[in-house]
Design a protein that fits this description.
Layout lengths: L1 E7 L3 E8 L4 E2 L4 E4 L6 H14 L6 E5 L3 E2 L2 E2 L14 H9 L3 E5 H12 L9 E7 L3 E7 L2 E3 L8 E2 L2 E2 H5 L1 H6 L4 H19 L3 E5 L6 H4 L8 E4 L6 H9 L5
Parallel strand pairs: 1-5, 5-8, 9-14, 14-15
Antiparallel strand pairs: 1-2, 2-3, 2-4, 6-7, 9-10, 10-11, 12-13
The protein binds beta-D-glucopyranose.
């Protein structure tokens, strides 16, 4: 069963059809730049273009960088605040003519890693996935079940949002080397550990392909591993989120 997965990010909106049996992308992914400003109608237009590119007529799943409940967007840390209160699922359905499910982007990445990637052999216990990108996204699973819309990237560390200290964007903006960056990330993950005691921590986002550079500075009780689906987790997980539409 194939679902079109669409990952909405700060700089690009990417889509590809995903085979939910295997978790594989079955046609070359298609990316368009995120409109600036990324207001609802402009983003919905791009989502419509992606669906048309694939001549898509079935179910669509989308990952969105905010708290999303029943399709409605509730926060806007790194997106236009015009999104708050908007039914994104309805907007994207209108733009594509297809049934659309919208979930938080980190929850999407977590679903993909738990089904096909670094978490697939960890269906028991507590797994925390963090995505390190423009912001910090989080997803928590207990015995394989997602607790949706956790927002641990906004935990306050030394008076600042964790994502302003330890996201990949923070590393770049503050010109941090791997060691100081690793120490900042460690501080965040130690605080997470103090509060929820995960058995496994999966580190995702584009930066996870350089995990050997900063993992040496992490000192945690939990086992820490890099995400396995790398670039595709967002698309694959977005599609998985819409599994119940198929
Ligand atoms: C948002 C989260 C999102 C994360 C990663 C944070 O700023 O609040 O909802 O998952 O960025 O995009």
């Amino acid at each position: 069963m194939a679902v079109l997965g669409i990952d909405i990010g700060g700089s690009g909106i990417k889509g590809a059809p995903v085979d939910l049996q295997t978790g594989e992308i079955i046609a070359e992914r298609f990316r368009l730049p995120t409109p600036d400003p990324a207001k609802p109608k402009a983003v919905a237009t791009v989502v419509g273009e992606i669906a048309r590119h694939f001549k898509w007529e079935g179910a669509i799943g989308s990952g969105f960088p905010a708290v999303v409940s029943n399709g409605v967007v509730y926060t806007a840390a790194n997106i236009s605040d015009k999104w708050i209160g908007v039914d994104a699922a309805h907007e994207f359905s209108t733009a594509t003519g297809c049934p659309v499910k919208v979930i938080n982007d980190a929850d999407a990445a977590g679903l993909a890693e738990m089904r096909y990637g670094a978490g697939k052999d960890h269906q028991k216990g507590v797994v925390l996935l963090v995505t390190l990108g423009t912001g910090i996204g989080s997803a928590i699973f207990t015995d394989g079940t997602l607790l949706p819309n956790t927002e641990f990237g906004h935990m306050r560390i030394r008076g600042k949002d964790a994502e302003h200290r330890a996201s990949d964007a923070a590393r770049k903006n503050h010109h941090l080397g791997w060691k100081p960056y690793g120490k900042k990330l460690n501080e965040f993950l130690q605080e997470m550990e103090r509060l929820i005691w995960p058995d496994l921590i999966i580190v995702g986002g584009g930066i996870s392909k350089s995990s050997d550079k900063f993992f040496p500075y992490l000192s945690l009780h939990a086992k820490v591993v890099a995400a396995q689906l790398l670039n595709n987790a967002g698309i694959v997980g977005a599609a998985l989120g819409a599994e119940d539409l198929t």
